[in-house]
Amino acid sequence: MIKKTLLFLLILPVQLLIAQSNLVNFPAEADPMEVGHRIAHRFIAGKHMLHAGKWISYPETFYWTGAINYARVTNDAKLMQAMKDRFSKLVSSEPQLLPPKNHVDLNMFGSLPLRLYQLTTEESYLDLGLPYADTQWQVPENAGQEAKNWAQQGYSWQTRMWIDDMYMITIVQTAAFKATGESKYLDRAAKEMVLYLDKLQRPNGLFYHAPDVPYYWGRGNGWMAAGMTELLRMLPKDHADRPRILKGYLTMMESLKKEQRKSGMWNQLIDEADCWAETSGSAMFAYAIITGVKHGWLREKQYGPVARRAWLALAKYVDGQGAVSEICVGTNKKNDKQYYYDRPRHTGDYHGQAAYMWCINALLDANDK
C-alpha cells in the first residue's frame, strides 16, 4: 500500500506538469510573444474599420483593446504609447468617429476608454467610457415598445436575442465594473447572460445565430463563448448567477471539444464537416478554453490538448506582417445555410485580428487581470 501511494505521488506531479505544458513551450513559429508582436504592432498604422462608414466599429474597438492588453502583458511601452496617442487623436481630431450610444454594436465602444482608465487612472477616459455602459440601461424616449418591455423586466433596452450581443453587452458592463468597482454593472451583465442562455442555448450547448436562424455559426458562437468567459473571470464565486453561467459555459465547451477538427480548427458552421475552417471563431473558442484551463473551470488533462492544438493551428494563418487570413467578414443573420458557406473571407479583417489578441494575451498573462 505504501509503495502504491509513493508511486501515485511521483506520477501526479508529472501528470500536472504535462497538462500545464500544453499552454507553454510552443515552437518558434507559434510563439505567442512573437506572433502577438506582429499582430499588435500591425494596428499602429492600420486604417479605421468603421461601422456603417461613420463610427469606430466593434472589431476595431476589440483589436485596439487587445493591442493595449498585449502592451501591458509584455511591458511594451512603445506600443502602449502608440495606442494612447491614437486614442488622443481620435478624441481631439476625429470626434465625429466616436459612436453614438444608441445600439448594442455601438455602446460596446465604452470598453476601450474604460480599459485605458483602469490602466492609467486618467479621469478623461472614465468620463468618456462610463456613459456607454450606463446608457445601455437608460431607455431613450424614442425607443420601441419591445425595447421598453425588456427594460421593464430589468434587462437592457438593447436586448435583441442575437448571440453576438452577449459579448457586446458583457464587455462594456464588465469594463465598467472593473473601472468603478460598482457591482450593479456586473449584476446587469450576469442577468442578461442568464436570459440569453435560457432562451437561446441548445441542448448540445451551442447556439443558433438567432431563434429564427437554425445554424451554428462559428463566430456567433464565439461571441457567446467569450462573453461567458469574461463574466466568469469577474463574478465572485458566491454570485447568484454564476452557477447558471458556469453550467452554460461547461456545456458549450464539451460540445466544442467534440466538434474540433483534426486540424485543431473549428469550421464556419461548427457542425458541418464540409464547411471551411474559419479563424475568428476558432480563436474565440481557443480563448475561452485557454482561460478555462488556466482558471480551473476546465480539466487540464481534457482541455489542455484542445487549447494547444487550436493555437498551433491558428498560428499558421498569420503572415509575416501580422495579418490573419480566412476571416469571415461581418455577417448578418439569414435563414439560409448556403449564405454561411458563401460568406467572403478576408485577410487582416479586424474581427479576426482582435480574437487572436485575446488568445495571445490569455496564453501570456500569468495574472489574467
TrEMBL record:
Residues 1-19 form the signal peptide. Gene3D superfamilies: 1.50.10.10. Its EC number is 3.2.1.172. It is an enzyme of class 3 (hydrolase). Pfam families: Glyco_hydro_88. The keyword Signal applies. Keywords: Glycosidase, Hydrolase, Signal. InterPro entries: 6-hairpin_glycosidase_sf (IPR008928), 6hp_glycosidase-like_sf (IPR012341), Glyco_hydro_88 (IPR010905), PolySaccharide_Degr_Enz (IPR052043). GO terms for molecular function: unsaturated rhamnogalacturonyl hydrolase activity. The keyword Signal applies. This is Unsaturated rhamnogalacturonyl hydrolase. It comes from Sphingobacterium zeae. The lineage of its organism: Bacteria, Pseudomonadati, Bacteroidota, Sphingobacteriia, Sphingobacteriales.
